[in-house]
Predict the 3D structure of the following.
Amino acid sequence: MLRAVMPTPTAENHLRFPENFLWGTATSPTQVEGHLDNEWTRFTAQDGGNCHVACDHYHRYPEDIGWMSQLGVNAYRFGIEWSRLQSAPFAPLNPSELARYVDVLDRLRAAGITPMVVLHHFSNPPWINAAGGWTSAATIPAFVDYVRKLVAALKERVFLWNTFNEPDTYACVAYLMGGFPPQRKWHLGQFRRVIEHMARAHVQASCVIRREGVAGRKLEVGIAKNWTFFHAHNRFSPWDRATALACHYTFNKFVLDAFLGRWRRRASTFIGLNYYGRVRFHHFRAMIPASGTPLKELKDFGFICDDMVERYPEGMEKILGYLRRKFRLPIYITEHGSASTDEHFRELDLRQNLAALHRSIQAGADVRGFFYWSLLDNFEWQFGYTKKFGLLAVDFADPKLPRSLKPLAQVYAQICRENRVRANGS
Ligand code: FCB
């Protein structure tokens, strides 16, 4: 059972976070960089959009790091795009692309921002896809070779490494739901194979990473696991309960066991948790906007949702308690955020989730940082540009792609600077 320890508010009724807590923001290459050649290059999203230019972060990263300084974040989680760095299996790393990422890291360091580097975020080089992607076991040594070369090149600059971002989401949406390339549906065998191959690659890549370190400081490594709660809307409906349970076993339990079960747990030094909320089933339907259920209908059911899933801040505390007891590893919240044009809604969601996070820390969870998803409004995969997750707005109608701070950015900046959040979650 989770201990019901109340947060200790400071005199001003604020919840203070541990010293040296990382307050960050997050992006991924395909969603913000533009000018890429991976499986998303030829993909058209539901809104007709594509990732060809996205936020042009590829060229504008100096400006975007400037925005991060304005936000007062002390950490940034971002991906290094494999397809930029290797043109064939076991090839040397492309020197000019590597130099660009080194420049990103140097500018972050100059701004006092700690990087967390993601090695795989829903995309692969074309030659990996052509050979079957992660359904093929041959992808494992190719990936580990890439990691070995990248870590050797960057180990002086990066000590937090995230091997895979949400392998569960990737394998599910690409091989069961048909939403991500290669858009396969109901290939359960391929889903399981992708997870198993990624888990083996994670363990091998983690060994490579953990062997490295500079100045007495060892490198840290972990995956980022998306955790969604799956519940039946009506707990007396056996069918909806069975659906929820099947989802929980497939996407939570099976995946966690594959990456962190038994001896494999020893490969990781931390767990990254991406937490957004929950999905409830009603007559087999997933009652969330991301599955097409209109917000209005969800409101009538009494559900509180952003433009993607149901919000469930108490779930933050539940999952952190579970991970703490089961794995006893440090945790980073590698993603949390909400998509909406209602900034008050987003502020409330942030405060409620941070209050739940604070309660978990009080109860003993060793949580070391929180990365807001996302720095910028961006290319949200199959949904294109319709989901507004950014702390900064990007005007995609203007070819100059100007950025501007949203009201939530001011709220987050204050939290980052003060290392505390108002206690009442409101
Ligand atoms: C997570 C993904 C991230 C983004 C957010 C909204 O599942 O890791 O790229 O799509 O959801």
In short: Residues 188-211 form the longest helix (24 residues).
